[in-house]
Design goal:
Blueprint: E1 5-8, E2 17-21, E3 26-30, H1 40-45, E4 67-74, H2 103-116, E5 121-128, H3 135-151, E6 158-163, H4 170-178, E7 182-186, H5 191-197, H6 207-220, E8 225-231, H7 233-236, H8 243-251, E9 258-263, H9 278-296, H10 306-317, E10 330-332, E11 337-339, E12 353-354, E13 358-359, H11 361-368, H12 376-379, H13 392-399, H14 407-428, H15 431-450
Parallel strand pairs: 4-5, 4-10, 5-6, 6-7, 7-8, 8-9
Antiparallel strand pairs: 1-2, 2-3, 10-11, 11-12, 12-13
Helix pairs in contact: 2-3, 8-9, 9-14, 10-14, 10-15
Length: 456
Amino acid sequence: MNKEFYFIKSDDIDDYNILFHVPTSSVAKVKYQDPDYFSERELKERFSELSSEEELDERLHTGKGKIGLTFMSARTCNLSCKYCFAGEGEYGCVDSKPKVYTYDAYMKAIQTAVKMYPEGIKSISFFGGEPLIGINEIKKFVPDCVKYFKDQGMTIPKMAISTNMVVMTKETAQFMKEYGMKAVISLDGPKPLNDYARVATDGSFSVYDRVVEKCKILDEYDVKYAVQATLNQQFFKEYKPGDGIKWAKELDKINWENLAIVPVETDVEDLKIDESHFEALDCFSREITNYYIDELLKEDMGKVASGIIAPILQIAKNKHVRTCSSGHSVFCDTDGSIYPCQMFCNLDEYKLGDIETGWSAERADSLSNISRMECEKCRDCVARNFCFMWCKGLQLLSNNDMRKTCDARCVFQIANMEECIKAFMRVKNNDERSALFWKNYKKVGERLVEDGFINK
């Protein structure tokens, strides 16, 4: 039986501790310091209308619902980031594969996907390498993609480009605005931190300066963008309380719409995060969680990183986040091969099929339905119904096992979850804060559904 109750020590400002019931997202105040004080019967008496643990997600099936497509728009990159899982964007320099995804391949891929998923395509992501290296093919494809879905009487997929921004131009931004495309950009924080790991191939410019300057182009054309921040050892080895707030305020200088943070997974000695950095990582996660919860609870709501504050909103509605769905949504390589996601690229044993003939439903379903609940560590985790750090592909690359978690990510997620539980208890017991919470919940709830943090 999975652990249902978790004891969480509140901060010094509170005169109580908290019991959290995972299946129902229920919270209760307790005075006791010992998590083992209660018997199971006494625990359940503390809560009303408790339900037993249910299967977190219904099984995913090929052909059911809508699919997300991610394209290897360019199998090359114009940066040499030290921690890149894709080997500086080259994915192992497989010379037999084209460097750029072509218009014909794009069209074939969406046609094949729609045959396999009659309800349509929910999203299209242009990925790399650096996808803007293949922008000419993207610009040919997108108008005809839009026309194709209109002709089919289907909803046009949401489209986004994951880019390092180095070659962003006004022409590209204008094109993105015209077709309602978003950008997902990489920026790891203040200039010294960002430029330590994210470097130009020839070292001729500051990547941080270039990205910040190019963001002004997106702002000029009102192109919405999210930031993906990857934090490495250099940030944590001399970390002091308060550094998380400084980090956040530095990133808040650009006009991001959303922000995602991940601890790096790498074997690079001066970047990898090990146990000696976990205390600092835990502190950072708590600081950054409370920073954005405070923004959520302002009358004039500030910037809110929905991925960071997602658990408090999930707790409020007892909504659980779907586990990693790679294999249901798929990744299309430049040679037409289909993989569960970009993390599996070049791993032939995980190839699902191709854009010409489609892909194996049996293989796709077996991979897409691997759940974090199959991991022993996850089954007894306070964040098991809310985790957005569990990634099958990354776990395979890092641990040679899709079901073995990445420790740094667990540290980040558990700290984030505990702070969200504490914050929810404070909201729940304060009428004024509660009213403000629910007012602002409506403003960010749709984004959480759209980004996959909350299931409808």
